[in-house]
Amino acid sequence: MLNVVLFGPPGAGKGTQSERLIEKYDLVHLSTGDIFRSNIKGETELGKLAKSYMDKGQLVPDSVTIDMLRSEVLKYSNPKGFIFDGFPRTNAQANALDEFLSTQNTAITLMLALEVEEEELKTRLLKRAEVSGRADDADPAIIENRIRVYNNETAPVKDYYLQQGKFISIDGIGSIDDITTRLFSAIDSRN
Ligand code: AMP
Q1: 191 falls in which pLDDT band (50, 70, 90)?
Q2: Which is nearest to 9 in space by CA: 144, 182, 190, 108?
Q3: Can 14 be counted among the known catalytic residues?
């Protein structure tokens, strides 16, 4: 299996690039943010809980997120692999993912980390708000908080995969096509 963690701060282009990767490598796309948003839309208990954190730009608690992710993975029989988009966002999630994947006789192949500097992220998110309808993209204070949470809690997850020799940094600035080419060559050089 090819299991990729597509990593990066909010606005780095994870969702856009995931679309390209799933098409080329025939993978299942699991975006925890998308799953939470569809639960919010469906007014589920999980959605109500997640919304209370997402509206503030905070992380949904690990236990809730990990349980959800596990049950999503189990929905697919014989997948070629997964793109984990927006997960793991803490070291506890990364650990739980490793443990869970080993029970499924598989593992993370590599982490591709899109690197984009903060000012560019803020510009991109505000622009995305015009089409995404996401409240957490439209408010500069929430954007600030999401970036702060990323720097404090999520960025350290890079070290987790670095120690496993699975970390690849990708320049996330440039045209969408150029960035896709960088991601494809990173994957192909490891496969
Ligand atoms: P995203 O769509 O990845 O930008 O995520 C939107 C929001 O969903 C985040 O700001 C968090 O509140 C929540 N979220 C998504 N993925 C996770 C995760 N792995 N752990 C905790 N919270 C998450």
Answers
A1: low
A2: 144
A3: yes
CA of 156 to the centre of ligand 1 (A): 16
Predicted confidence at residue 176, as pLDDT, reads 97
Give a yes or no: residue 134 inside a domain.
no
On whether the CB atoms of residues 168 and 113 are closer than 8 A, the answer is yes
Cα of 59 vs centre of ligand 1, distance in Å, is: 6
Q: Which domain holds residue 61?
A: 2-117+155-190
Q: Whose CA is nearest to atom 2 of ligand 1?
A: 33
Does residue 131 form part of some domain?
no
Which atom of ligand 1 lies nearest, measured to the CA of 86? 3
pLDDT, tens only, 45-92:
999 999 999 999 999 999 999 999 999 999 999 999 999 999 999 999
Would you state the pLDDT for residue 190? Answer: 85
Tell me the per-residue pLDDT of 94-108, one tens digit each, with 9 for 90 and over.
999 999 999 999 999
Q: What interhelical angle do 62-73 and 32-41 show, nearest 10?
A: 90
| Annotation marks residue 146 as catalytic | yes
Q: Of all protein residues, whose CA lies closest to atom 6 belonging to ligand 1?
A: 33
